[in-house]
Amino acid sequence: MSRKTWIVLAVVILLLGFPGLLSSAGAVDPGPPVNQSAPAVTGVARVGTSLTASPGTWAPVASSYAYSWLRDGSAIADAGSSSYHPTVADLHHQLSVRVVATGVSATPSQPALSIPTAAVGLGQLQVTGGPTISGRRRWGSTLTASPASFAPTPDSVRYRWLRDGTPIKGATTRTRALTVADFGTRISIRAVARRTGYATATAVSAATVPIGHRVAVRKTFTYSIATRGRITADVATFARLAAQTYANPRGWRAAGFAFRQVKSGGDFTLVLANASTMAGFGYPCDSTWSCRVGRNVIINQTRWLHASPAWNAAHLALRDYRNMVVDHETGHWLGHHHLTCPGPGRLAPVMMQQSKGLHGCRFNPFPLPSERWTNR
Fold it and tell me: Which of 47, 125, 175, 298 sits a CA distance of 20 to 30 A from 79?
Protein backbone atom coordinates (compact mmCIF):
# COMPACT_ATOMS: atom_id res chain seq x y z
CA MET A 1 0.00 0.00 0.00
CA SER A 2 1.32 3.36 -0.96
CA ARG A 3 2.14 6.08 1.53
CA LYS A 4 -0.67 8.27 0.18
CA THR A 5 -3.19 5.50 0.74
CA TRP A 6 -2.03 5.04 4.32
CA ILE A 7 -2.55 8.78 5.06
CA VAL A 8 -6.11 8.78 3.69
CA LEU A 9 -6.92 5.63 5.66
CA ALA A 10 -5.63 7.21 8.89
CA VAL A 11 -7.80 10.31 8.44
CA VAL A 12 -10.92 8.19 7.83
CA ILE A 13 -10.23 6.10 10.92
CA LEU A 14 -9.73 9.30 12.99
CA LEU A 15 -13.01 10.81 11.78
CA LEU A 16 -14.95 7.59 12.35
CA GLY A 17 -13.53 7.15 15.80
CA PHE A 18 -13.97 10.78 17.11
CA PRO A 19 -16.97 12.37 15.38
CA GLY A 20 -17.61 14.90 18.22
CA LEU A 21 -14.39 16.73 17.58
CA LEU A 22 -15.91 18.60 14.63
CA SER A 23 -19.10 20.51 14.35
CA SER A 24 -21.44 20.19 11.45
CA ALA A 25 -19.62 23.14 9.90
CA GLY A 26 -16.35 21.45 10.34
CA ALA A 27 -15.08 23.76 13.26
CA VAL A 28 -13.85 22.54 16.61
CA ASP A 29 -16.50 22.97 19.45
CA PRO A 30 -14.87 24.95 22.31
CA GLY A 31 -17.55 23.99 24.91
CA PRO A 32 -19.41 26.39 27.30
CA PRO A 33 -17.69 29.60 28.45
CA VAL A 34 -15.74 29.49 31.70
CA ASN A 35 -15.76 32.48 34.08
CA GLN A 36 -12.40 34.20 34.38
CA SER A 37 -13.35 37.17 36.65
CA ALA A 38 -16.50 37.38 38.74
CA PRO A 39 -19.49 39.54 37.84
CA ALA A 40 -19.69 42.85 39.68
CA VAL A 41 -22.47 45.17 40.89
CA THR A 42 -22.03 48.95 40.60
CA GLY A 43 -24.16 51.67 42.17
CA VAL A 44 -25.19 52.59 45.70
CA ALA A 45 -27.28 49.94 47.41
CA ARG A 46 -30.13 52.14 48.52
CA VAL A 47 -33.89 52.01 48.11
CA GLY A 48 -34.98 53.82 44.98
CA THR A 49 -31.59 53.85 43.24
CA SER A 50 -30.38 51.74 40.30
CA LEU A 51 -27.81 48.95 40.46
CA THR A 52 -26.06 47.64 37.35
CA ALA A 53 -24.44 44.25 36.85
CA SER A 54 -21.40 43.65 34.68
CA PRO A 55 -21.03 40.00 33.61
CA GLY A 56 -17.36 39.61 34.39
CA THR A 57 -15.01 38.03 31.85
CA TRP A 58 -15.41 34.63 30.21
CA ALA A 59 -13.34 32.36 27.99
CA PRO A 60 -14.15 31.65 25.34
CA VAL A 61 -16.09 34.90 24.82
CA ALA A 62 -19.79 34.47 25.51
CA SER A 63 -22.45 35.48 23.04
CA SER A 64 -25.15 36.15 25.69
CA TYR A 65 -25.67 36.38 29.43
CA ALA A 66 -28.57 35.53 31.72
CA TYR A 67 -28.87 37.50 34.97
CA SER A 68 -30.56 36.62 38.25
CA TRP A 69 -30.61 39.00 41.23
CA LEU A 70 -30.40 37.54 44.72
CA ARG A 71 -31.45 38.88 48.10
CA ASP A 72 -29.28 37.37 50.83
CA GLY A 73 -28.54 34.53 48.40
CA SER A 74 -32.15 33.82 47.42
CA ALA A 75 -33.48 34.61 43.96
CA ILE A 76 -35.72 37.64 43.60
CA ALA A 77 -38.79 37.04 41.46
CA ASP A 78 -38.92 38.88 38.13
CA ALA A 79 -35.42 40.31 38.55
CA GLY A 80 -33.68 39.04 35.42
CA SER A 81 -32.11 42.03 33.72
CA SER A 82 -28.69 43.57 34.04
CA SER A 83 -30.08 46.37 36.20
CA TYR A 84 -32.09 46.32 39.40
CA HIS A 85 -33.89 48.93 41.50
CA PRO A 86 -33.81 48.09 45.23
CA THR A 87 -37.22 48.24 46.89
CA VAL A 88 -38.43 48.44 50.47
CA ALA A 89 -38.32 44.62 50.57
CA ASP A 90 -34.55 44.83 50.11
CA LEU A 91 -33.96 47.25 52.98
CA HIS A 92 -31.18 46.01 55.31
CA HIS A 93 -30.50 42.99 53.05
CA GLN A 94 -27.51 42.29 50.79
CA LEU A 95 -27.91 41.97 47.03
CA SER A 96 -25.84 40.04 44.52
CA VAL A 97 -26.15 38.96 40.92
CA ARG A 98 -25.75 35.52 39.34
CA VAL A 99 -24.66 35.28 35.69
CA VAL A 100 -24.87 32.34 33.30
CA ALA A 101 -23.02 32.74 30.00
CA THR A 102 -23.78 31.03 26.68
CA GLY A 103 -21.25 30.62 23.88
CA VAL A 104 -21.31 29.36 20.29
CA SER A 105 -22.12 25.82 21.38
CA ALA A 106 -25.39 27.05 22.98
CA THR A 107 -24.44 25.16 26.09
CA PRO A 108 -24.93 27.33 29.21
CA SER A 109 -22.02 27.84 31.55
CA GLN A 110 -21.79 27.17 35.20
CA PRO A 111 -23.22 30.18 37.16
CA ALA A 112 -20.84 32.89 38.37
CA LEU A 113 -21.76 34.97 41.44
CA SER A 114 -20.85 38.55 42.31
CA ILE A 115 -19.68 39.74 45.70
CA PRO A 116 -22.72 40.88 47.75
CA THR A 117 -23.37 44.59 48.15
CA ALA A 118 -23.47 46.32 51.50
CA ALA A 119 -26.83 46.09 53.24
CA VAL A 120 -29.39 48.14 51.33
CA GLY A 121 -29.89 51.52 53.00
CA LEU A 122 -32.75 53.99 53.20
CA GLY A 123 -33.62 55.88 50.06
CA GLN A 124 -33.29 59.64 49.82
CA LEU A 125 -36.23 61.94 49.15
CA GLN A 126 -35.25 64.91 47.02
CA VAL A 127 -36.67 68.39 47.64
CA THR A 128 -38.00 69.63 44.31
CA GLY A 129 -39.74 72.83 45.37
CA GLY A 130 -41.09 75.12 48.11
CA PRO A 131 -42.35 75.94 50.55
CA THR A 132 -42.71 79.68 50.05
CA ILE A 133 -44.58 82.22 52.18
CA SER A 134 -47.08 84.84 51.05
CA GLY A 135 -49.14 87.39 52.98
CA ARG A 136 -48.69 90.71 54.80
CA ARG A 137 -45.80 90.70 57.24
CA ARG A 138 -47.76 92.37 60.04
CA TRP A 139 -49.11 90.82 63.23
CA GLY A 140 -52.85 90.44 62.97
CA SER A 141 -52.49 89.29 59.35
CA THR A 142 -52.32 85.72 58.05
CA LEU A 143 -49.41 84.11 56.22
CA THR A 144 -49.92 81.22 53.81
CA ALA A 145 -47.28 78.69 52.75
CA SER A 146 -47.27 76.98 49.38
CA PRO A 147 -46.82 73.20 49.61
CA ALA A 148 -43.34 71.75 49.45
CA SER A 149 -42.69 69.10 46.80
CA PHE A 150 -40.47 66.03 46.95
CA ALA A 151 -39.43 63.16 44.69
CA PRO A 152 -40.49 60.45 44.82
CA THR A 153 -43.91 61.39 46.18
CA PRO A 154 -43.87 61.09 49.98
CA ASP A 155 -46.47 59.27 52.03
CA SER A 156 -46.97 62.35 54.20
CA VAL A 157 -45.74 65.93 54.60
CA ARG A 158 -46.04 67.76 57.92
CA TYR A 159 -45.59 71.48 58.43
CA ARG A 160 -44.36 73.55 61.37
CA TRP A 161 -44.03 77.33 61.59
CA LEU A 162 -40.83 78.68 63.09
CA ARG A 163 -40.21 81.94 64.94
CA ASP A 164 -36.58 82.97 64.57
CA GLY A 165 -35.85 79.33 63.81
CA THR A 166 -37.67 77.95 66.88
CA PRO A 167 -40.82 75.83 66.39
CA ILE A 168 -44.07 77.55 67.36
CA LYS A 169 -46.23 75.33 69.52
CA GLY A 170 -49.40 74.18 67.77
CA ALA A 171 -48.56 75.94 64.46
CA THR A 172 -48.85 72.92 62.16
CA THR A 173 -51.02 74.03 59.23
CA ARG A 174 -49.96 75.90 56.10
CA THR A 175 -51.51 79.12 57.39
CA ARG A 176 -50.27 81.25 60.27
CA ALA A 177 -52.41 83.94 61.90
CA LEU A 178 -49.68 86.25 63.13
CA THR A 179 -49.94 87.28 66.77
CA VAL A 180 -48.28 90.01 68.79
CA ALA A 181 -45.73 87.39 69.91
CA ASP A 182 -44.50 87.30 66.29
CA PHE A 183 -43.80 91.04 66.24
CA GLY A 184 -40.18 91.82 65.41
CA THR A 185 -39.32 88.19 64.66
CA ARG A 186 -38.60 86.39 61.40
CA ILE A 187 -41.13 83.71 60.48
CA SER A 188 -40.42 80.64 58.35
CA ILE A 189 -42.06 77.26 57.79
CA ARG A 190 -40.55 73.78 57.77
CA ALA A 191 -41.90 70.85 55.76
CA VAL A 192 -40.96 67.32 56.84
CA ALA A 193 -41.63 64.53 54.32
CA ARG A 194 -41.83 60.82 55.09
CA ARG A 195 -42.00 57.77 52.84
CA THR A 196 -41.61 54.10 53.79
CA GLY A 197 -38.09 52.93 53.08
CA TYR A 198 -36.73 56.46 52.79
CA ALA A 199 -34.92 58.78 55.16
CA THR A 200 -36.94 61.77 56.37
CA ALA A 201 -36.48 64.85 54.18
CA THR A 202 -36.82 68.46 55.32
CA ALA A 203 -37.41 71.68 53.40
CA VAL A 204 -37.43 75.10 55.10
CA SER A 205 -38.68 78.30 53.52
CA ALA A 206 -36.75 81.54 53.52
CA ALA A 207 -37.46 83.60 56.64
CA THR A 208 -39.63 86.68 56.35
CA VAL A 209 -38.43 90.16 57.13
CA PRO A 210 -39.18 91.01 60.78
CA ILE A 211 -42.92 91.04 61.40
CA GLY A 212 -44.15 94.59 61.69
CA HIS A 213 -46.85 96.39 63.61
CA ARG A 214 -50.47 95.42 63.12
CA VAL A 215 -51.13 98.52 61.02
CA ALA A 216 -49.02 101.23 59.46
CA VAL A 217 -48.68 104.56 61.24
CA ARG A 218 -51.85 106.56 60.71
CA LYS A 219 -51.00 109.50 62.95
CA THR A 220 -47.94 110.63 64.87
CA PHE A 221 -48.12 112.54 68.16
CA THR A 222 -45.21 114.39 69.73
CA TYR A 223 -44.57 114.71 73.46
CA SER A 224 -41.97 116.12 75.81
CA ILE A 225 -40.83 114.92 79.24
CA ALA A 226 -41.10 117.08 82.37
CA THR A 227 -40.88 116.59 86.14
CA ARG A 228 -42.46 118.30 89.11
CA GLY A 229 -41.37 118.25 92.75
CA ARG A 230 -38.62 116.16 94.27
CA ILE A 231 -37.86 113.27 91.93
CA THR A 232 -35.96 110.21 93.18
CA ALA A 233 -36.72 108.00 90.19
CA ASP A 234 -34.24 107.95 87.31
CA VAL A 235 -35.74 110.33 84.75
CA ALA A 236 -33.77 108.86 81.86
CA THR A 237 -35.17 105.42 82.69
CA PHE A 238 -38.65 106.93 82.96
CA ALA A 239 -38.30 108.44 79.49
CA ARG A 240 -36.89 105.23 77.99
CA LEU A 241 -39.61 102.97 79.44
CA ALA A 242 -42.36 105.40 78.43
CA ALA A 243 -41.03 105.36 74.86
CA GLN A 244 -41.07 101.57 74.93
CA THR A 245 -44.69 101.62 76.10
CA TYR A 246 -45.66 103.92 73.26
CA ALA A 247 -43.87 101.68 70.74
CA ASN A 248 -45.19 98.43 72.20
CA PRO A 249 -47.13 96.51 69.53
CA ARG A 250 -49.86 95.77 72.09
CA GLY A 251 -50.25 99.42 73.09
CA TRP A 252 -51.70 102.42 71.29
CA ARG A 253 -49.31 101.67 68.42
CA ALA A 254 -51.66 98.79 67.49
CA ALA A 255 -54.22 101.47 66.62
CA GLY A 256 -51.78 103.09 64.19
CA PHE A 257 -50.69 105.85 66.58
CA ALA A 258 -46.99 106.65 66.83
CA PHE A 259 -45.44 108.79 69.55
CA ARG A 260 -42.22 110.78 69.15
CA GLN A 261 -40.44 112.52 71.98
CA VAL A 262 -39.29 116.11 71.40
CA LYS A 263 -37.12 118.32 73.61
CA SER A 264 -39.92 120.67 74.56
CA GLY A 265 -43.53 121.40 73.77
CA GLY A 266 -45.13 118.80 71.56
CA ASP A 267 -48.75 117.76 71.41
CA PHE A 268 -48.69 116.85 75.12
CA THR A 269 -46.31 116.69 78.07
CA LEU A 270 -45.61 113.50 79.96
CA VAL A 271 -44.91 114.51 83.53
CA LEU A 272 -43.30 112.51 86.33
CA ALA A 273 -44.53 114.20 89.51
CA ASN A 274 -43.88 113.81 93.20
CA ALA A 275 -47.07 112.68 94.93
CA SER A 276 -47.20 115.85 97.04
CA THR A 277 -47.47 118.00 93.90
CA MET A 278 -50.21 116.06 92.15
CA ALA A 279 -53.15 118.08 93.49
CA GLY A 280 -51.55 121.21 92.07
CA PHE A 281 -52.46 120.11 88.57
CA GLY A 282 -56.14 120.45 89.44
CA TYR A 283 -59.09 118.05 89.32
CA PRO A 284 -59.10 115.05 89.19
CA CYS A 285 -55.48 114.74 90.39
CA ASP A 286 -54.64 113.78 93.97
CA SER A 287 -51.63 112.43 95.84
CA THR A 288 -52.71 108.77 95.46
CA TRP A 289 -53.14 108.20 91.73
CA SER A 290 -51.92 109.36 88.35
CA CYS A 291 -54.10 111.59 86.18
CA ARG A 292 -54.48 113.71 83.06
CA VAL A 293 -55.32 117.41 83.01
CA GLY A 294 -55.44 119.34 79.75
CA ARG A 295 -52.30 118.64 77.72
CA ASN A 296 -50.50 117.13 80.73
CA VAL A 297 -50.31 113.36 81.18
CA ILE A 298 -49.15 113.06 84.80
CA ILE A 299 -47.60 109.94 86.34
CA ASN A 300 -47.50 109.81 90.14
CA GLN A 301 -43.91 108.99 91.14
CA THR A 302 -45.08 106.77 94.01
CA ARG A 303 -47.13 104.66 91.62
CA TRP A 304 -44.31 104.59 89.09
CA LEU A 305 -41.85 103.30 91.70
CA HIS A 306 -44.12 100.94 93.62
CA ALA A 307 -47.22 100.16 91.47
CA SER A 308 -50.55 99.90 93.32
CA PRO A 309 -51.58 97.75 96.31
CA ALA A 310 -54.00 95.72 94.16
CA TRP A 311 -51.40 95.16 91.44
CA ASN A 312 -48.83 94.02 93.98
CA ALA A 313 -51.33 91.76 95.74
CA ALA A 314 -51.79 89.94 92.44
CA HIS A 315 -47.99 89.50 92.22
CA LEU A 316 -47.83 91.17 88.83
CA ALA A 317 -44.76 92.76 87.28
CA LEU A 318 -43.91 96.39 88.00
CA ARG A 319 -43.04 96.83 84.31
CA ASP A 320 -46.57 95.91 83.28
CA TYR A 321 -48.00 98.36 85.80
CA ARG A 322 -45.88 101.07 84.20
CA ASN A 323 -47.21 100.06 80.78
CA MET A 324 -50.74 100.22 82.12
CA VAL A 325 -50.48 103.61 83.85
CA VAL A 326 -48.87 105.31 80.84
CA ASP A 327 -51.39 103.72 78.45
CA HIS A 328 -54.31 104.62 80.71
CA GLU A 329 -53.45 108.28 81.27
CA THR A 330 -52.38 108.78 77.64
CA GLY A 331 -55.68 107.17 76.66
CA HIS A 332 -57.47 110.02 78.43
CA TRP A 333 -55.45 112.51 76.38
CA LEU A 334 -56.45 110.59 73.24
CA GLY A 335 -60.09 111.12 74.15
CA HIS A 336 -61.02 107.92 75.97
CA HIS A 337 -63.18 107.85 79.11
CA HIS A 338 -63.30 105.29 81.90
CA LEU A 339 -64.75 101.90 81.02
CA THR A 340 -66.16 99.04 83.08
CA CYS A 341 -65.49 95.31 83.12
CA PRO A 342 -67.00 93.65 80.02
CA GLY A 343 -67.58 90.35 81.82
CA PRO A 344 -66.20 87.99 84.48
CA GLY A 345 -62.88 86.43 83.54
CA ARG A 346 -62.25 88.77 80.62
CA LEU A 347 -59.37 91.19 80.26
CA ALA A 348 -60.05 94.59 81.73
CA PRO A 349 -60.00 97.52 79.32
CA VAL A 350 -56.91 99.64 79.82
CA MET A 351 -59.29 102.55 80.39
CA MET A 352 -60.85 100.77 83.37
CA GLN A 353 -59.65 101.98 86.80
CA GLN A 354 -58.05 98.63 87.50
CA SER A 355 -56.34 99.70 90.72
CA LYS A 356 -59.72 100.57 92.23
CA GLY A 357 -61.42 97.23 91.49
CA LEU A 358 -61.66 94.66 88.71
CA HIS A 359 -65.30 93.55 89.13
CA GLY A 360 -64.45 90.07 87.89
CA CYS A 361 -62.08 91.11 85.10
CA ARG A 362 -58.37 90.33 84.85
CA PHE A 363 -55.59 92.89 85.05
CA ASN A 364 -54.48 94.12 81.62
CA PRO A 365 -51.78 96.69 80.78
CA PHE A 366 -52.69 97.30 77.13
CA PRO A 367 -55.67 98.66 75.17
CA LEU A 368 -58.22 96.13 73.98
CA PRO A 369 -59.03 96.00 70.25
CA SER A 370 -62.32 97.71 71.00
CA GLU A 371 -60.40 100.71 72.43
CA ARG A 372 -58.29 101.37 69.33
CA TRP A 373 -59.74 104.69 68.27
CA THR A 374 -59.10 108.33 69.10
CA ASN A 375 -60.85 111.67 69.00
CA ARG A 376 -57.52 113.34 68.16
Answer: 125
